[in-house]
Design a protein that fits this description.
2 copies of one chain form a homodimer.
Chain A (H helix, E strand, L loop, with lengths): L1 E10 L3 H19 L1 E7 L4 H7 L7 H6 L3 E6 L7 H15 L4 E7 L17 E7 L9 E4 L7 E9 H17 L4 E6 L7 H13 L6 E6 H10 L6 E4 L1 H14 L7 E5 L7 E5 L16 H13 L3 H16 L14 H11 L1
Helix pairs in contact in A: 1-9, 1-10, 1-11, 5-6, 7-8, 9-10, 10-11
Bound molecules: 3-isopropylmalic acid (2 copies).
């Protein structure tokens, strides 16, 4: 049987509750579609940090490198600064494994209520393709005149040709596979006048190779407004690291699915493992209570199956989510129900 | 009588149609409340650029400097690149006149439909205070290895202590004047790790001086989501140049008022003139047809009156807008009516 090696990193908070349900559904899919998942568990988290002073061992990334994919829960906990937790576990994976694509589907699922008035599932169904390694999230910057009135800080955004071209190419290819064949670029070249005009330039260049794709571009400010006013305009949206971060929270928000939104951090060349994680965080307020919604985690699992080439299994998982939501299956509090994490996971594992 | 010197710059497109209506209402307010507006008209625009190669004369800013305020329509026209039009007229004013506050009220007006389901006017009523001179809109950056595979561009975000402190102070003072006394800071210190942690640091420092204000902060990604899901959470929101730009388009979008949203670019010390302009642009698609909605311009006029100390007159103008909208007065297409620009302007001038 086909075998995929999966590194499982539940991480913090509700990640510890949602990953087991993700695995439950993945396991059901594996049995049904005849492949094998070889799991290795890593308990790296903010607790590891409390014990060892590190989020993961020094050779942590090397350990993960052996796997085909990483299945991640959530990273972060009150009291541990983000520059320790996120930058000690999440961001190093994205960077070191050159997961330069962050993929975040934004779909209004049947049976889920959008905060927007009168929107139907067919009207909200787009994907944000986010650059995931450079841009505004740079490691170049600093502070001068500390502690004085003259104090200032700087941070340099860096856009390379390689970085722009590869994320754009991925987005164009993805748009080619979708029926609407439409790609929108997020820019801000009217205000951010060194980097964003270059982004536009590379987008225009890449567009030449894809005459079948209809393209447009909007400045990020009005694009955010359009997400609210005209979500039906969008099919695939390509964006820099920061703009993609914003759009891929706003997109799920307009789709009423911030609690169920999945994400994939992909190295398309498969030189390194890709990583799959929910968009939500560790949710300290509800952690440990068994009430977290596992759907984002399970849906992220579907994206992982897709990446591993298990297309049928991936479709079965998203179909299962869709039926559960539309047919009034058990749902957690955030969706107006009173089911627990386990119950939802089991229900999905059964129908997958 | 009190006299205020106003520089009027209609600019491009619908700016030429909305400023006269703005002036009509301001004039009515001046007569009713007993002050005088001394107007000087400047026809600087993309047409000026076409004729002279410049958006305004070399001493343009000096000419404007004589006035107490600038009343601007819109800047920009197809065929003229943004770095010519915006950076030749709009941005120089913000920078040279040190208009370091951009103020953008986001209100669901009675009689206006929000794209959000089931929201009432009382639930959407907040103000975005945007830093308007530094941050992500910097003039420091460049390109290397042009035309090769190694090509890259950089742009440096710059946050000074002066820049952060003064916009935050303004925001805290504004929050003090509002009944809810609440201030939210937009950050992204978990991803943008040099500049945004500094922003947070200054915010925490400033908060100490305002114990009456309840504060919170959100990363810009989830903050955008909250604008859609919980607009009622917000009272005053303070943000950097880019984040403020995004939030002040998204805010009006959730309030259904992107076509009527006003903005003020303020130099609080009054060392230089402040500038008042609609959030919308020059709208080439409807320009010249007399159908543009003048409310954003007129509302911007109210912000100008407020700044000039004409508080009663300012309130009269916003009240007039509110009644017109809620009582089914004439409305333009964008609000579902079929009135023209002139008709709406006249209706407001009559009741002010
Ligand atoms: C035109 C553009 C440079 C400007 C900005 O981003 O500041 C506009 O979007 C605004 O918000 O006034
Ligand atoms: C936690 C944070 C650094 C991260 C990001 O901004 O990339 C998160 O918001 C995300 O989108 O995965």
């Amino acid at each position: 049987a086909r075998k995929h090696r999966i590194a499982v990193v539940p991480g913090d908070g509700i990640g510890k509750e949602t990953t087991p349900e993700g695995l439950r559904v993945l396991d059901a899919a594996a049995r049904r579609f005849g492949f094998e998942l070889e799991l290795t568990h890593y308990d790296w988290s903010c607790e590891t940090y409390a014990k060892t002073g590190k989020m993961m061992p020094d050779d942590g990334l090397d350990q993960l490198r052996q796997s085909d994919a990483v299945f991640l829960g959530a990273v972060g906990w009150p009291g541990v600064p983000d520059n320790v937790s996120l930058w000690g576990l999440l961001i190093p994976m994205r960077r070191d494994f050159d997961q330069y694509i962050s993929l975040r589907p934004c779909r209004l699922m049947p049976g889920v209520r959008s905060p927007l008035a009168n929107r139907t599932p067919a009207e909200i169904d787009f994907v944000v393709v986010r650059e995931n390694t450079e841009g505004e999230y740079s490691s170049s910057g600093g502070r001068m005149f500390r502690g004085t009135e003259r104090e200032f800080v700087t941070q340099e955004s860096v856009f390379t040709r390689t970085g722009c071209d590869r994320v754009m190419k991925y987005a164009f290819e993805l748009a080619m596979k979708r029926p609407r064949k439409k790609l929108t670029s997020a820019t801000k070249s009217n205000g951010i006048t060194f980097t964003m005009p270059y982004w536009d330039e590379r987008f225009a260049e890449m567009a030449k190779a894809y005459p079948e794709i209809s393209t447009d571009q909007f400045h990020i400010d009005i694009l955010c407004a359009h997400f609210v006013q005209h979500p039906d305009w969008f099919d695939v949206v390509v964006a820099s690291n920061l703009f993609g971060d914003i759009l891929s929270d706003l997109g799920p928000a307009v789709a009423g699915s911030i609690g169920i939104a999945p994400s994939a951090n992909i190295n398309p060349e498969r030189k390194h493992p890709s990583m799959f994680e929910p968009v939500h965080g560790s949710a300290p307020d509800i952690a440990g209570k068994g009430v977290a919604n596992p759907i984002a985690q399970i849906w992220s699992g579907a994206l992982m199956l897709e990446h591993l080439g298990e297309h049928e299994a991936a479709a079965a998982v998203t179909d299962a989510i869709e039926s559960l939501l539309s047919e009034g299956g058990p749902r957690t509090r955030d969706l107006g129900g009173n089911a627990g994490t386990l119950e939802v996971g089991k229900a999905l594992a059964e129908v997958v």
